[in-house]
Amino acid sequence: MTATVPSNPGRPRGAVFRHELYPYRGEDQFLSGTLDYIHEALEADEAVVVAVPEDKISLLRGELADELAVTFVDATTAGPNPGRHIAAWSAWMNERGEGGRPVRGIGETAWRQARSAAHLSELRYHEWLMNRAFARSSTWSMLCPYDAADDDQDALRSLSRCHPQIHRDGQYMPSEGYLTGEEYAFDALDAPCDPFQELSYTHGDLAAIRSKVSQCAADVGVTKDRLAKLAVAVTEIATNSIRHGGGHGTLRTWAQDETFLCELRDSGYIPHAMTGRIRPEANQVGGRGLWLAHQLCDLVEIRSTPDQGTTIRLHMDAPQR
Question: Given this model, what pLDDT does residue 321 score?
Fold first, then answer.
């Protein structure tokens, strides 16, 4: 890994996707690091896509005026579920990289606004998956600013594990903590909260599954429009269990911290980490279940191994009434 990463910020010929963590403190450091990155791109006739919080957009706009090669996008349009973000970045970068033009992204995740420990865990997993999703995108690179003002070294180490490079003093270098292996170390799923409802299902039980989920979700305050979305997502995942997970599965539902959760377990195995995170082709037959679940739910957690099967948790906001 070290041999392939230069000590200067220029993009070498034949380089792989560059994914840098940029720890900064305060507005001045944010601006100095991101502007250096942007100006370097502009000098190389590269396009730039920026997805950062609104206050940071205002700072950058004030320094860049109307630079046409820099596009600001509203990251909130992708929604809170990190499972949607790779497809969003792919669309933004493809649009700006028309004709093979190199593109640089600047994406700052609102880590401290994570909705739950599960959401924070999935945000980290998304950052790690970016390396896999864009591994062959040699004309793309990504800078990920991270506000390190609170000096949380544990959080910084966790993020360093997800980024192959780290950006410091105008240069990028290998991240010593980066997970170079093939396996990602997932956080363990918390046990369901009591009381939870449990139901086994197999062929012919999809209507019962939808009815059970809709009733339980409505009881804890999930709104009508979200009930419809959740019913579709649960149907898709349960159908996958029946078709690919041994013909049957187990559903659990419970409420926790203003969230309604559906957990579906079966004996199947999902071998590809990107399943459900890449937009299906228009003429694709099948393979849309997890994609739909990510689009419809506020969070999706997936744990799948050959020996233990698959567990999928669907989260839907349920504000207290």
Answer: 55
Q: What is the mean pLDDT of residues 156-171?
A: 89
User: What is the pTM (predicted TM-score) of this model?
Assistant: 0.90
Strands (E) in the chain, as ranges, are 18-24, 47-51, 70-72, 103-107, 140-147, 165-168, 171-174, 197-202, 248-256, 259-266, 299-305, 309-317
What is the rounded CA–CA span in Å between residue 100 and residue 96?
A: 9
Residue of 293 and 66 predicted with greater confidence:
293
Helix (H, G, I), strand (E, B) or coil at 96: helix
CA–CA separation, 297 vs 226, rounded Å? 8
Amino acid at position 91, single letter? A
pLDDT in the model for residue 264 = 98
2-174: CATH topology is Rossmann fold (3.40.50)
How far is the C-alpha of 262 from the C-alpha of 311, rounded, in Å? 10
Q: Which comes out higher in pLDDT, residue 190 or 13?
A: 190
Q: Which fold has domain 197-317?
A: Heat Shock Protein 90 (3.30.565)
Report d(CA 311, CA 304) in Å as an integer: 6
How many CA within 13 A on the CB side of residue 37? 32
